[in-house]
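Workshop exercise sheet. Pairs work together: one partner reads the sequence aloud, the other fills in the structure field after running the prediction. Swap roles for the next sheet.
Pair: D.N. / O.F.
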Amino acid sequence: AHTIPTSSQVGIILSADCACMHKQVYAQAMHTETLKPQDVAMNVPLFDALMRAQDCVSDESCARLIGCHRSTVSRLRDQTCNPTGAVMLRIAKVLGVTVEVLFTEVEKTR
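Structure field:
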């Protein structure tokens, strides 16, 4: 005989699944955070397109949406900033993409 879970049991299951997903995303961000500044590059055209879709054009409006300083957005666009894993995760979450879609590892040249 199969039992149908109660709504509270379903909520617990969903919460556990969400917690598991958050742990995976956090681990992904922490892996990214260990990279050196010259090892990470943001896809600026994609960032700008996704920000425009959310009516954020200026560095200031993008910074408010992300929750960072305006100069951080400016340096990200200029490729002169390496954000922490937490910032990359926040940007990706706000834009509805994964960290890997927005940020890529740059191959080292010798």
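Discussion prompt: The chain has six helices and two strands. What would you look at next?
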